[in-house]
Every structure is written in structure tokens, then in C-alpha cells.
Task: structure prediction
Amino acid sequence: MGWFDGNPGRLWPHPPEALAPRYVDAMGGIDRVVELAQTAFEAGDFRWAATLLDHAIFTDSDHPAARTLYADTLEQLGYGAENATWRNFFISGATELRDGNFGTATTATSTSMLSQLTPEQIFDSLAISVNGPRSWDLDLAIDITFADLATNYRLALRNGVLVYRNVGANPATADVTVKLDSKSRLLAVAMGDVTSAGLDISGDRSALQSLLNVLDKPDPRFNIVTP
Result:
């Protein structure tokens, strides 16, 4: 049900940046790969052309012929895609190759939308934002208490991993306890606001700041078809 199909030959492949040059070298160099892709393109085999050009771009992302043909190939795949999500990915990839990274067009910053998130969803978002190497030596226990929900969560950060449990507050074992008037205040705290009204912090405030310091902010301008 996941990415591994049971074939051990696909269990531990090289990452794309290391795999692509090996394929390109085996096929006779990047110019030869582009020639093969051109043949596939002219034959209407756009899926094979895209596979070849993906390796070419991850070998030399500035290769003019590879970029041009790859953009044309993705565009053709987009034209043929009935699924809107697939079509958008194909056309976005073609745009990136032709005009550069254009970033994410929309951001999820609506207060009304974010307020619909559960505490668990917010904590999950924080957990995947933790920079593991930077937080490896931290050992933190943080209680988050919601007055409007009459509930408490214990956040534990150890070995670069943030986990949480819905348990009773225990100031004796928590480094810091954060009491929030409402769930919406958690969003402000996650953004680094630990001074405004609506929250009460007791214990070691530096523990909370240590957690906030190792949260990576998402980058909306990531590449999708180039290294």
C-alpha cells in the first residue's frame, strides 16, 4: 500500500541526483539521451520521453535542449490528461522549465479556515516541521492546556522527534506549561507569538522558545522538475 512494491531491487535505489548521471552515462551521454527522447516524442510516447528527460535534467538541469524538449513533453502530457490534478502538475512542470520556479500561488492563512483545524492537526503540522538534526540534543516536555476545550496535551521532543498525547496536565514533570484561552491562540504561539493576550506561560519559558527555534518554515518556492 506504500511506495515499496515488494521487489527488493527497488528497495534501496540511489536518490535522483545520483541515479540520473548513472543512467545517462549508461546510455551514452546526455546528448544521446535527448536524441532518444526526441525519437520517443515524435512517436507520441511522451511517457518514455519524460522518463528519459527526467534523468537528463537531473544530470544537467541547464542543458538547453533537454529543458526545451522536457517542457514540450510535459505540455503534451498535460493536454492528454483528463484528471485535473495530473494536468496541473504537467503544465506546472513545463512552466518551471521554461520560465523558472513560480512558487505556490495560494497560501493557507485564512483565520476562518485555520480555526477549523483540530489541536491534533496543528500538532501534526508542528511535528513535521521539526528540524531533526538541529533538535537532536533537545529533551523537552511541554504541556498545552486549552481552556475552551477543557483538555491538555503533552508535547515531548526527544531525538529530533516531536510527539504528543492527550493527557492530564502535570506541571511537576513538564518543563513549561502553556495555558491558552482558545484553540486559535495555539496558531499564534506556533507562529512565534508568546507575549500577546490569551495565554499564560509558567515554568521554563526557554523550553517553549527552544521548540519554536527548531521549527522550519515551509518554502513555497520549491522545484518540482529540476534539482
About this structure: The chain has two domains: 12-99, 111-214. The first helix runs from residue 16 to 26.
